[in-house]
Amino acid sequence: MAKAFFRLQKFLRRTQFLLFFLTAAYLMAGSLLLLQRTRFVIQQGSRGTSANQALPVPDRVAGVGIVDPRTLQNPQPGPRLLVSMDALQEPALNQRHSPRWLVSRNSELRQLRRRWFHRFISDQEPMQTVGFKAMKHTGEHKGTYVGCFSDDSRERTLKGAVFYDLRKMTVSHCQEACAERAYSYAGLAYGAECYCGNKLPVTAVKPEECNSECKGEKGSICGGVNRLSIYRVEELRTGARRRRNVIYRGCFRAPENLTDTFPASLIQPNLTVEMCSEFCSKKEFPLAVIRGQECYCGYPTRRFPLHDGAEGQLCADTGRYCQVYQTPVQDTRCTDRKFLTTKSKVFVALSSFPGAGNTWARHLIEHATGYYTGSYYFDGALYNKGFKGEKDHWRSRRTICVKTHESGKTEIEMFDSAILLIRNPYKSLMAEFNRKYAGHLGYATDRTWKSKEWPDFVNSYASWWASHVLDWLKYGKHLLVIHYEDLKQSLIPKLKEMVEFLNMTVTEDRLLCVENNRDGNFKRSGAKQKDFEPFTQEMKDLINRYILTVDEALRGRNFTGLPREYVPR
């Protein structure tokens, strides 16, 4: 009996070891497979990969330019282009010139959102308990700490400028930003928000109530919940003055009653632009208006919209005209934003091809309506800069509209209506290539442009630019087509169309405020000129045929065709 028991015990031990070995092998194999399938996401970013990294294609994919997966094993040597209006009925693009990775985008984007979500959660984890004495208000900070104050979002005193950085906010960063914009005080709240102004809040509170650690600076305090850590930055302003941007807006006809139009004024002998700009900056106005020895401060309004400029000589020869300058002060009449208080009954998409100006359009819509926009994705860089709708679930209906680059019948029919933003494909491709390899504000290096990545990118993405528009024209239920170039040229009229389409009503002054803050925080600084032509003749022939196809499709649906500036003749 003992011998049989010993044999059983020996067998169980071997079985336990075998099960452990098999389990470990299974987990390792699964991990390797997962890493292989998600490798391109880590390397290439959120919207795709090069053609030679495409994943297996599902059996059914809706949308123009997607072919039967079996053809991927035997690619054709020559490209087949979109032709005529038949593209609206049947897929016609050869897989060589379509974004092959896009066909498996749903599972890939879910993986990407999980990765972003975990990164976001890790950023939001409660920070380790730090003794209040260990946190410091001074030290390397150049401004003078004033104290901790109560912050009421409805009656905010420091409202001259507002900045967010939910990952890298520091006391110095906030101080310098406020000093460069000619403010006297910088206030930090929630560890990540920066407010500027020239007046202190009324209510001071206990120092320990400011207890939020700065997101980008361990050991330093950046306010708290409804609490502001305030610094005086006047001593920084002398050094920052030479970095301030006072922008000449032009010569304009003066309104009939200047004192009624502008809330603040100054009469000064030998008045200079710098004197007037300093005066208006201290008063927290974005415009400095000069007529002779008179200085006026205010905002763009219906009485003074800054739309019809005049010859500069008129400002020197007659008192009926005035010179207008943009001060470093931010126009804050349209910076307040919030989530919808009740769920939206209409589910609206803000759809575009990547690189077509979707982020800029969101900035305009948010500031015009006062409500956040959502996103089908989660972009941590956008969230950190104040697009708070990024972290909200895209189907929550708490945002005014939802950003998407998706195409295909299933993805499009989820929305009740859509604003379809279209941009010149040459500009879109270059913008997305820059974003893919250098982020939202950077530029890809010349070496990257001249590598094989660029032709692979054009071959994959050019057809997506066309198929994206064609799919939305085919499956979209209620569309408003906006051309990026028209929006840039005629901001107020086009923005009015977008706001009305969203069933919102806004004041003229708010729209003028948006126009005054038109660029937002995600505009690349200038157009980086290249000493070479990135598009080969073969690329141009390909893109031009897509342009003609899309132009024909738009006109076939009674929409305005593509702008003449980039339609081939």
TrEMBL record:
It holds the Pfam family Sulfotransfer_1. This is WSCD1 protein. Residues 142-234, 245-334 form the WSC domain. Keywords: Repeat. The gene is Wscd1. Signal peptide: none annotated. Belongs to the WSCD family. GO terms for molecular function: sulfotransferase activity. PANTHER family: SIALATE:O-SULFOTRANSFERASE 1 (PTHR45964:SF8), WSCD FAMILY MEMBER CG9164 (PTHR45964).
